[in-house]
Amino acid sequence: MSKGPMSDNERAARSLGVKRDLKLKFAAMGVWWLVGIMFSYLVLSFVTQWSFLINMAVSLLTGFLLMLVFYYLVLPRLNREGAFYREILTRFNREGFTPELAAQLDQRLRTQDFSSNLYRNYYNNYLELLAVYNLNLHNYGETMRLLDSFDMNQMQQAMSYDSGRIHMTNYHYIRLITAAEIGDISRLEYYYGAASPCFAQCRGVNKLVDAMIDSSRAMREVAFARAALSRGDREEAFRNLDEADRVLAPYSSEPATKQDYCNISARTAALRGDRDTAERLFDEAYSLAKNNFQRETVLRDKARVLGTSEA
């Protein structure tokens, strides 16, 4: 399944969540404009004999120019990670994940100093992208290691903003999907308990965040169903599968959530023994994929669930 930020679901949710952060950006720009006006007015008062109105008019224009120079030229150079992160996201959105991109992120994490609070959010973002990459490759142990490396204090502080809530939801989403795929029910329940307060706080940020929360719930039920079937309890397994299908139903027709819906629903169909439906849903997920990595991920999942050799 195209899990985490590589799905249209999370990418759209992230763009929606940034709206609130844009308000903070404009507020910061307004503050710097005001500082520029005050600085310009003081300088002009000392070096010119202009009237108050002329000084103010020139200060307004000069302050605006100083704000643009500081915000778009000076600050980006002080923040060494900004340009690199923008480049990574541009390539990610254009190409999807590639081994070269993953290797570049891994090298960045190994060679850069992220101890400053200014860079901790980049540190978590790089870990998040690599966790998604490894989850889609079925490297579950490495996915868990990356999730364990997150700076949770920084994540918690960012929960004041919509973008922070989206990142925290995605962190728990990746964790729960990984545990469900491994089939470790005890760890799955522990992680679900840890995620529940976050899900309660984040539900309603937008529909796409809700979809991540409900996809986590559905995959939890799928894991329960597998465990029940392994015990020979088909009645309990089918109750779990019914619950998974019920949770997923609202997302069956939304373009941004359709791919995840197909991927998880294919699993419920396969566990019911309906191979034809499972294959049809995986094929639909494949047709919805936006890049080669997503298509390869669907084939890997199909091979794992149905035992085919298409991956």
Shape label: elongated
Q: Give the number of helices.
A: 14
Our estimate of the beta-strand percent is under 5%
Kindly provide the radius of gyration, computed on alpha-carbon positions and rounded to a whole number of angstroms. 24 Å
pLDDT averaged over residues: 87
Low-confidence stretches: 4-20
Give me the CATH architecture, please: Alpha Horseshoe
The main pleated sheet reads as: none
Count up the domains.
1
Topology, element by element:
Blueprint: H1 8-47, H2 52-78, H3 80-95, H4 99-111, H5 117-136, H6 140-148, H7 152-157, H8 162-182, H9 185-202, H10 207-230, H11 234-248, H12 258-272, H13 275-288, H14 292-306
Description of the structure:
The protein is built from 14 helices and no strands. By secondary structure, the protein is mostly helical. It has a single domain (4-26, 78-306), classed as Alpha Horseshoe (Serine Threonine Protein Phosphatase 5, Tetratricopeptide repeat). Helix 1 (8-47) packs across helix 2 (52-78), helix 11 runs antiparallel to helix 12 and helix 12 packs antiparallel against helix 13. It is elongated and about 90 Å long. Mean pLDDT is 87; it is low at 4-20.
Relevant terms:
311 residues, 81% helix, Serine Threonine Protein Phosphatase 5, Tetratricopeptide repeat, single chain, elongated, mainly alpha
Quick structural summary:
This protein is an all-alpha fold. It is 81% helix and 0% strand. It has a single domain (4-26, 78-306), classed as Serine Threonine Protein Phosphatase 5, Tetratricopeptide repeat.
